[in-house]
Amino acid sequence: MAKVIYPGTFDPVTNGHLDIIKRAVELFEEVIVTVAKNPSKTCLFTIEERVEMLKESLKGFNRVKVDWFDGLVVEHARNVGAVGIIRGLRAVSDFEYEFQMALMNRKLADDITTILLMPHARYTYLNSTIVRNLAQFNGKVSDFVPEIVDKKLKEKFGSK
Ligand code: ADP
Q: What is the domain range of residue 45?
């Protein structure tokens, strides 16, 4: 049975990410959620905070692990013995980027397959940027993120 990684920035993890993880666990023996250190992006949360929020949000999940990496996704997949890379596809707007990444990763590592999963329609408009922006201006984000993320966002922005 196969092991896969689900790489991303997760700044922070949302219910959309969790929906993808649930679907991946139904298909694969083990899912390793892998937080990218991603020097090209300026993140609100540190790598430690992003890992911690994921671990807390995934407490009830069997066969799911959380780790982080700094470098090429395909190399990390190889290092942990994964056969595939899970990515989420919300809308056509995600397609071009995900398609490019998938083909580039295949060029780098032909034995590692990208698997694109679609979330429930209710998560198709959800992303971490919207959540961060909402929270910054005191908007209610509890419908979109796990409890721990709601709490951490309030701490970050000093809201009640
Ligand atoms: P990245 O910066 O690598 O795109 P993200 O944390 O934004 O990292 O997303 C990781 C993966 O999860 C991406 O494939 C993204 O398309 C997918 N994703 C993000 N939000 C959602 C969502 N609401 N529903 C489904 N997939 C999502």
A: 3-125
Confidence band for 83, pLDDT divided at 50, 70 and 90? very high
pTM > 0.85: yes or no: yes
pLDDT band at 1 (very low <50, low <70, confident <90, very high): low
The SS3 of residue 114 is strand
Say if ligand 1 is within 6 A of residue 132 CB: no
Report the distance separating Cα 86 and Cα 10, nearest Å.
14
Pocket lining: 17 vs ligand 1, CB cutoff 6 Å: yes
pLDDT at 32: 98
Residue 64 lies in a domain: yes
* Smallest CA separation from ligand 1 atom 24, residue: 16
Ligand 1 centroid to Cα of residue 85, in Å, is: 12
Question: For the chain, how are helix, strand and coil distributed in percent, rounded to 5?
Answer: 45, 20, 35
| 120 in any annotated domain | yes
Which contacts qualify for 98-102: CB closer than 8 Å, 24 or more apart? none
Q: Which two tokens stand for residue 55?
A: 């671990």
What is the set of active-site residues? Answer: 17, 41, 90, 128
CATH of the domain at 104: 3.40.50.620
Q: How many domains does the chain have?
A: 1
